[in-house]
From TrEMBL:
Localization: Cytoplasm
Cellular component GO terms held in the UniProt record: cytosol
Protein name from the UniProt record: tRNA (guanine-N(1)-)-methyltransferase
GO MF term set: tRNA (guanine(37)-N1)-methyltransferase activity
Enzyme class at the top of the EC tree: transferase
Catalytic activity as recorded in UniProt: guanosine(37) in tRNA + S-adenosyl-L-methionine = N(1)-methylguanosine(37) in tRNA + S-adenosyl-L-homocysteine + H(+)
CDD domains: TrmD-like
The family this protein is said to belong to: Belongs to the RNA methyltransferase TrmD family.
Organism of origin: Limihaloglobus sulfuriphilus
E.C. designation(s): 2.1.1.228
Residues that bind S-adenosyl-L-methionine: G113, I133, G134, D135, Y136, V137, L138
Example GO BP: tRNA N1-guanine methylation
Role summary: Specifically methylates guanosine-37 in various tRNAs.
Pfam families: tRNA_m1G_MT
Length: 232
């Protein structure tokens, strides 16, 4: 998979993309991540990419020309047509199902905005989807783009050391993950549940399923609304 990121601050991505699972994914060529600076496509010597909104109001709005020119230059770098996504608060809320959907694409193009947002003609002209990572305000689209990259890359084949890890994680089946334990068996009078020491894999699987459902009912009951009855 190739992921293009169009941003005013490509340096923000350098450290997050250079460590842990994302680094391994890049080194194994499971994913290629290409950063492009929208400001490099500004038309003037001041590298201006924003202007005052028509109709008045606070703040500045990202201009069409630098974004369109950056998009067209980056798009031409590969024959694969990108799925174009703008990181905006009014977009579809990002979740595990959408991460799975995006992980099946050959190429993604994430556009990270700043200021008061994008000129609306950018969305219209690029026929871009909009994705939000939550109902809160951030300074720009860079952090949301990093979240999408991380969630998608870990789903690519061979990226995780054990592919079953992605299956067992929270939200993978619509429920929160069951409790996890490791050595020692007792720590500060807190014991690992005996069932996990029994070696009975059938009973362990049932315990994990029950605990997953119990946690979801307690902490995220909203997740149960869309689940089939056999999972509740």
């Amino acid at each position: 998979m190739r992921i293009d990121v169009l941003t005013l601050f490509p340096e923000m991505f350098e450290s997050p993309l250079a460590h842990s699972i994302i680094r391994r994914a890049r080194e194994s060529n499971a994913v290629e991540i290409v950063l492009s600076n929208i400001r490099d496509f500004a038309a003037d010597n001041y590298r201006k990419v924003d202007d005052k909104p028509y109709g008045g109001g606070p703040g500045m709005v990202m201009m069409c020309q630098p974004v369109f020119d950056c998009y067209e230059s980056v798009k031409a770098q590969s024959t694969d047509k990108p799925r174009v996504i703008m990181m905006t608060p009014q977009g579809r809320k990002f979740d595990q199902q959408l991460a799975k959907e995006l992980s099946r694409e050959k190429r993604l193009m994430l556009i990270a905005g700043r200021y008061e947002g994008f000129d609306e003609r950018i969305r219209e002209g690029l026929d871009a989807e909009q994705i939000s990572i939550g109902d809160y305000v951030l300074t720009g689209g860079e952090l949301p783009a990093m979240v999408v990259i991380d969630a998608v890359a870990r789903l690519l084949e061979g990226v995780l050391g054990d592919d079953a890890s992605a299956v067992d994680e929270s939200f993978s089946d619509g429920l929160l993950e069951y409790p996890q334990y490791t050595r020692p068996e007792v720590y500060r009078d807190m014991r690992v549940p005996e069932i996990l020491l029994s070696g009975d894999h059938g009973k362990i699987a049932q315990w994990r399923k029950d605990k997953s459902l119990e946690r979801t009912k307690k902490w995220r009951p909203d997740l149960l609304d869309g689940l089939p009855d056999n999972k509740k």
